[in-house]
Specification:
This protein has 128 residues and is α+β, with helices and mostly antiparallel strands. The protein contains 3 helices and 7 strands; from the N terminus they run βααββββαββ. It has a single domain, classed as TATA-Binding Protein (2-Layer Sandwich). β4 and β5 form a beta hairpin. α1 crosses α3. The longest helix has 22 residues. Pfam families: DUF1885.
Length: 128
């Protein structure tokens, strides 16, 4: 498996459903930005389709599949433990430069909305 970024909420746990809601919100606001600019910005801002998957070992997670050749896929999972839960965004070995850039952007967006500490793919920590 590739590299991962982690978001640790400052208080309380986090659920996969909340992450799905935040990704949907991200898509909505980027679509509105595109409409204001009269440009199909949403296709570039969120170049993925979202599928919820279930694995016996991993549990439920989100598979973000790229819509074009610049993006392969990202995986987003959640440890839903009430006290020390976290969101994990994983770049698989097949990830492109586009996936890494978009993974960083989505990680920062989610960390800001969740109000948590973000440990980026390169190990750097950013508080939100």
């Amino acid at each position: 498996m590739g590299r991962s970024a982690y978001i640790y909420p400052k208080k309380g746990g986090i659920q996969l459903e909340k992450v799905k809601e935040l990704l949907s919100y991200f898509q909505q606001i980027t679509t509105k930005t595109g409409e204001q600019l009269n440009w199909k910005y949403d296709d570039r801002a969120f170049p993925y389709t979202i599928e919820e998957k279930v694995d016996e070992e991993l549990g439920s997670y989100l598979l973000l599949k790229g819509k074009d050749e610049n993006y392969d896929h990202l995986l987003i999972g959640v440890n839903e433990n009430e006290e020390d839960g976290y969101v994990q965004i994983t770049l698989p070995e097949s990830a492109t430069h586009g996936d890494k850039g978009k993974g960083n952007e989505l990680a920062k967006f989610l960390a800001k909305k969740i109000k948590g500490n973000l440990k980026l793919f390169n190990g750097r920590v950013m508080p939100f």
